[in-house]
Amino acid sequence: MPIELGDDERAYTSNEAPASFADMLGTAAYRCAAAAMRLGVFGALRDGPLPAAALASAAGVDERGVTILADALVSFGYLTGSAAGYELTPLSDRWLVDSPYTTVELFWQRVMFELWDGLEDSVRTGKPAVDFYAWLADRPETSRQFQSMLDEHARLLAAELAPLIPVPPGPARLLDLGGGHGRYSTALCERHPSLTATVLDYASALGPGGDRVTMVPANYLEADLGTGYDVVLLFNVLHGHPEAGNRALLARVEAALNPGGVVAILEHGRDAPGPADVSFLRTFSLNLFHGQNGEVYALDRIAGWLAGFGEVSTTRLRNSPTQYLITAVAQSRGAG
Ligand SMILES: C[S@@+](CC[C@H](N)C(=O)[O-])C[C@H]1O[C@@H](n2cnc3c(N)ncnc32)[C@H](O)[C@@H]1O
């Protein structure tokens, strides 16, 4: 996107030249930005411009290599070049140095340039060619970026979501499946002084927990979920499983809930007002299919899986308009 076409390059927009070539350049730009972030090139420029030799020494990299990379980044709009040396542009200054957004960027770069290598196999066979969580487990740094991206997103949404989730007065129990960082459980416990929460996730994903927030390392597809819960959170979980897996999981959740208890589901919808949001949702869905046999499901399809529950309600989030909270009330104890 930072590349601006020149007046004599309009052939790309009129289909006289292949616009996919511009996409190739966009991909190169993204890859170059990844290299600059990982090598600390942007960070070395945070206090002002540096000539190539000083930039190479500050980042601890080869001078000729960094010059060629920086020149490419100038053409892509991530740096400017002048007699004073290379300098951050407003884009790289605001978003790619010392910003929480850097974790989003660093995570998706690994996904695009490494995880998607077998995308054709997934599409050809209809089965995920890679196991996303096994792939993450082999990459502790990418795993940390993934968790910190989720945690940052939860930090923005927890205050909006907590009041939308009905918790009965008095001592109540919450189960947070795939709750990782635990931020949603913590926000709900802060709001409801008699609530205790259990967060169940892979060990590498679990945050520190707290007095009333217990972290339990487990695979929720296999673990005994127990019974007697008033609320079960399934936040950004259903999109990681195929339909049959979700139906089975929801039946186990229903059995774990007290009658009148609530399952609260957070998911992305498939529609968005702008083409960039729609493109992201479809990119996300493809990634879920490729690595987890999941996808971004239509909301009415999710509602269909809740047929055994009563009172299904759906709320679009103000602070993340492509995401929805779906709540449903358990009617009677399920079969288990
Ligand atoms: C997309 S993240 C959502 C995290 C959190 N609920 C949120 O909304 O921010 C999905 C979480 O589910 C966990 N997870 C996926 N499959 C799991 C499984 N079979 N057992 C336990 N945890 C699992 C992942 O480790 C990850 O923390």
From TrEMBL:
Residues 26-97 form the O-methyltransferase dimerisation domain. Signal peptide: none annotated. Residues 131-272 form the O-methyltransferase C-terminal domain. CDD domains: AdoMet_MTases. InterPro entries: COMT-like, COMT_C, COMT_dimerisation, SAM-dependent_MTases_sf, WH-like_DNA-bd_sf, WH_DNA-bd_sf. Keywords: Methyltransferase, S-adenosyl-L-methionine, Transferase. This is Methyltransferase domain-containing protein. GO terms for biological process: methylation. It comes from Actinophytocola glycyrrhizae. GO terms for molecular function: methyltransferase activity. It holds the Pfam family Dimerisation. It comes from the Bacteria.
